[in-house]
């Protein structure tokens, strides 16, 4: 399977295999793990991010399966998640290219090429000084609503992110655009899972990740309760009465993550 925007074909030697050229692209490295590299590259004067997967090996696959986790063996996982979320109206990066080859899951090669989102800033950066300099109520209210909308849309449609932290929520920063009209993008979907319905433990993991990563943002108890209300679209008293154990597990797991992260 191979796809590349036609406007990018002029960036490559069409006499040579395009797949190999995409897999060998070099740029600014943002992440380099065993079997996967994330880089920013410039093509036709425009910035893109490319994730190149080069096979994880059977040892990594077996390790993940023993931990009851689905291993990520291809960029196709991210492609499918982006397509699904786009259909659901969630803002995600635009895909400019994708390729996959190899039947062996341990050595399968693939890439996904995405347009860079700019200008944007992550909620992690945006909230970094909120303890010292709190935002307006309207500003914080909007972001809580949008984050809850994204979480609810994912989970109601059988999708869990698995790395659902505020650093993966990027707010558009266009000049002259009020925050109420700015888009909030969801990124880093290479580990996302899509099912008919997500298991409870993965819902808890996503919500705990969001909670843990916002603990230094200066959110109040009222803010957290508002998020719960927006996420469930239910009266708060009904949530506290019928879902007390769920949110207790979310908080406990998020607090554990925070303690482990602080060590």
Structural summary, described in words:
- The protein is an alpha+beta fold and 263 residues long.
- It has 2 domains: 2-115, Phosphorylase Kinase, domain 1 (2-Layer Sandwich), CATH 3.30.200; 120-262, Transferase(Phosphotransferase) domain 1 (Transferase(Phosphotransferase), domain 1), CATH 1.10.510.10.
- Helices cover 40% and strands 20% of the residues.
- The chain has helices at 18-23, 57-66, 76-87, 123-126, 137-156, 200-213, 221-232, 236-242, 244-262, and strands spanning 2-4, 28-33, 36-43, 46-53, 95-101, 109-115, 120-122, 159-160, 169-172, 184-186, 193-194.
- The protein has a 6-stranded antiparallel β-sheet with strand order 1-5-6-4-3-2. The chain has a 3-stranded antiparallel β-sheet with strand order 7-9-10. The chain has a two-stranded antiparallel ribbon with strand order 8-11.
Secondary structure layout plus pairing:
Blueprint: E1 2-4, H1 18-23, E2 28-33, E3 36-43, E4 46-53, H2 57-66, H3 76-87, E5 95-101, E6 109-115, E7 120-122, H4 123-126, H5 137-156, E8 159-160, E9 169-172, E10 184-186, E11 193-194, H6 200-213, H7 221-232, H8 236-242, H9 244-262
Antiparallel strand pairs: 1-5, 2-3, 3-4, 4-6, 5-6, 7-9, 8-11, 9-10
Helix pairs in contact: 5-7, 6-9
């Amino acid at each position: 399977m191979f796809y590349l925007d036609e406007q990018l074909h002029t960036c490559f030697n069409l006499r040579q295999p395009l797949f190999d050229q995409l897999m060998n692209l070099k740029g600014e490295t943002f992440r380099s793990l065993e079997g996967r590299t994330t880089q920013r590259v410039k093509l036709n004067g425009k910035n893109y991010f490319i994730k190149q997967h080069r096979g994880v090996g059977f040892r990594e696959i077996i390790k993940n399966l023993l931990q009851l986790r689905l291993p990520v063996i291809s960029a196709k996982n991210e492609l499918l998640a982006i397509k699904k979320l786009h259909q659901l109206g969630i803002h995600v990066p635009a895909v400019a290219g994708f390729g996959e080859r190899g039947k062996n899951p341990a050595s399968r090669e693939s890439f996904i090429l995405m347009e860079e989102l700019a200008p944007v800033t992550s909620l992690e950066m945006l909230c970094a000084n909120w303890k010292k300099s709190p935002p307006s109520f309207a500003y914080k209210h909007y972001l809580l609503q949008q984050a809850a909308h994204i979480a609810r849309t994912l989970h109601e449609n059988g999708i869990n992110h698995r790395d659902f932290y505020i650093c993966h929520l990027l707010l558009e920063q266009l000049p002259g655009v009020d925050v109420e009209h700015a888009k909030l993008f969801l990124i880093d979907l290479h580990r996302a899972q899509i099912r008919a319905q997500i298991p409870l433990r993965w819902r808890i993991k996503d919500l705990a990740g969001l909670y843990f990563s916002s603990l230094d943002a200066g959110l109040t108890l009222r803010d957290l309760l508002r998020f719960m209300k927006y996420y469930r679209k239910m009266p708060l008293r009904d949530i506290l009465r019928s879902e007390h154990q769920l949110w207790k597990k979310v908080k406990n797991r998020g607090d554990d993550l925070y303690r482990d992260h602080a060590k």
